[in-house]
Amino acid sequence: MKFGKPLIAASALAAALLLPATPAAAEPVTYNLSDGNVVISQNGEYVITQDDPNTPVTKTIEVKADVDATITLSGVNIEFDENDWHACAFKIEDNSTGDVTVVLAEGTANRLVSGPNAAGLQKNGAGENVGTLTITGNGSLYASTNNPSSFSAGIGSSVNNSTRNITIENGNIEAFGRRGAGIGAGSAYTQGSMTSATNIRINGGTVLVSASGLACGIGGADRFHGSLGAVSVFVTGGSVTDSSRYGIGSFRPVDPRIVITGGSVKSAAGFTTQPTDGEGNAVYLLKIDNQNSQPVTLDGESYLPVNQNASSPGDTSLYAYVTGESHVVKVGCTTTTWNFDNGSFTAGASSTEHTFSSAWQSNSANHWNICDACGDTVSEEHSLSAHHDETSHWQTCETCGYATDPEPHSFEWVVDREATATEAGSKHEECAACGYAKKAVEIPATGTTEDSSDNSTGSTQNPSTPNKENGKALPATSDSSAAIAAAAIAMGSILIAGGYALNRKSR
């Protein structure tokens, strides 16, 4: 049996209609805080904004337990009064197993300021199954509480609570804890309470932290009437600046662990325990100046960030933590070996090798170029060498090709060999400025005087005279017969002239 093309086409269409349709990607749900509090109770993507980001609102954001949500903050400004003791700007329900990602919309500034007993961005719970809080994006976030007598973290747990699984991936983050950590645990205020902060990770971004009281910038809090539990902080990247009184770690930790494998970490008070590389090896501060924010490699591997300027404006040093041995660091085009001794590093051998692809630029004094690799401007004085032709002289830089304006030669005669009575000499014209010389010319011999002592005739010979006739020297003579002949000729001339005169008179 043969099937016609129309039947085949119809069958294909029917089959296509039976296939399940691919659902279109759901658009994020947008909430406006100006309309009221935001409660997220279902998995999904959300955007939260408000009418005027410059005017604080007293609204709240809450993510219910066990909800997986990606929440973009786009110009959110929440701030509660210092007397709103339990008001929380952004709260993930306690002990939630859900994973929450907060995205800071590019170019936006966001503020989360809670009342005294709540964290600015709050995540309570330290059990094995609690979910994660991840902060990323290219915007900024400020998180804190609004009372000097508060006991909560900027980002982390509230008073008497612990926190776990907080990760900073990107963004400009500023977190200030008031007797709680900047990022980490709230204070153990009540008798018998214990607070901890575990698995706090900084993988990137710009992070500025601080805390009041006995709390740390990242990690544990002020213990008051309670006690402090475990603290574990991991820094793998980003620029971190801590200005707290007790540094990074915990004031009195039970089980402190600080691991630094990357990033630039600047802490005014240092660390409450020795940082390691995660494998049990102690790491120490290697501070590297990088004023021009040039690319950095550490032991052959590219390193970021290149300095601390992002989280500590004006500080162009890189604060790397590395194992206690020699390390090779390249900043731009300069390679330096750093040697370790007794807990600190000192700079050893160093070399610089620039790469130029463009032509040198120059003026009358020097030349310069911009390195392709590091961006440094390298300037040098000219290395001039002399050049000339038959009419002029000049100088040229052998590096960049710069040439001075040609100047005419200023010639002077230079005698190479003096002439003598019997031998010709030589001389040439030479430029007094550059030494260029023309071809030598002859200086004629000056003439001779012969000795008469061997004259057998006893007659005196006259020397040659310098008289010239038609360019030829005329020789002098002492021959007496020639003199007599000359006198006779002269006498004859007189007699002839006299006879001619008498003859004319007789006529």
TrEMBL record:
Transmembrane segments: 482-502
PROSITE patterns recorded: ZINC_FINGER_C2H2_1
Pfam families, per database record: Beta_helix_3
Signal sequence, start to end: 1-26
Region (Disordered): 446-476
Keyword field contains Membrane: yes
Protein name as it appears in the record: Carbohydrate-binding domain-containing protein
Phylogenetic placement of the source organism: Bacteria, Bacillati, Actinomycetota, Coriobacteriia, Coriobacteriales
